[in-house]
Amino acid sequence: MAKILVTGGAGFIGSNLVDALIKNGHKLVVVDDLSSGLKSYINKEATFYQLDISSDELEPVFAKEKPDFVFHLAAQIEVAKSMIDPRHDAKINLDGGLKILEACRLHEVKKIIFSSTGGAIYGDTDLIPTKEDCPAYPLSFYGIHKLTFEKYLNLYYHNYGLNYSVLRFANVYGPRQFKGGEAGVIAIFTDNAVSDKTSYQFGDGRQTRDFVFVSDVVAALISVMEVDYQGEINISYGLESSLLDIREALNKALDKKILVEEKPAKPGEQRRSCLDNSLAKKILNWEPKVNLEEGIEKTVTWAKNKNS
Prior knowledge:
Strand order of the largest sheet: 3-2-1-4-5-6-11
Shape: globular
Oligomer: single chain
């Protein structure tokens, strides 16, 4: 049994991870400012600290709790918001991240696992599915700051011996992702569909993303804890799905045609994104188990229960 600190542990992915780690017998500490997570998502068996990761109050938490492992999921997560206010994005995703790294170094954390991003780091590329060694040219401050923090991790490993691994996620979806919080397209469309509200499709609907279900992501995060690998690993389903595919899956799961209004495409939107997950299969002995149709059914069931 280990003591594990999860930043962003009240969020969509973080809270699912905390539940799984507690089920596996570990002691959990959650740090979250509740800016995009919910207090109701936090497992009652976890010790909770409500604070911003860029706060000076962070290091005393490490001093008191002395975690063995740190999962770093807390972030400013909106690409569009990073373009409007890059300094705020940097404050959380870089300054906050450096505070975590310093706390890990000072209190001899065994390993830090960082939740990074796939599509936002690789940018527009013709190399699809995209491998980890693809040249990274982010087109957003969010992507640049995620990539920069990956380099900080490598620096801390080589200079201070702080062990780390980076998981670059594709588009994660599933229960606890909600409109207004850490919302992706599936969350928004699902939430609207179960409430008989209209969703807006920008463009022709043929733009693709690589959608991976949250339970598969949690399994990958847990798998990397004991793996000695310093570097980046894609976590994805490994197949392209379009917005039209999502609409079809929602129609089937709800047994009705969902309400969608089509609008002009947003300028600069990435047309295709899909990550190669062969390294995860090799290093972590991991592969995704939940396909898009099954995952959307599970998400719809959760959304219905949430709204009932």
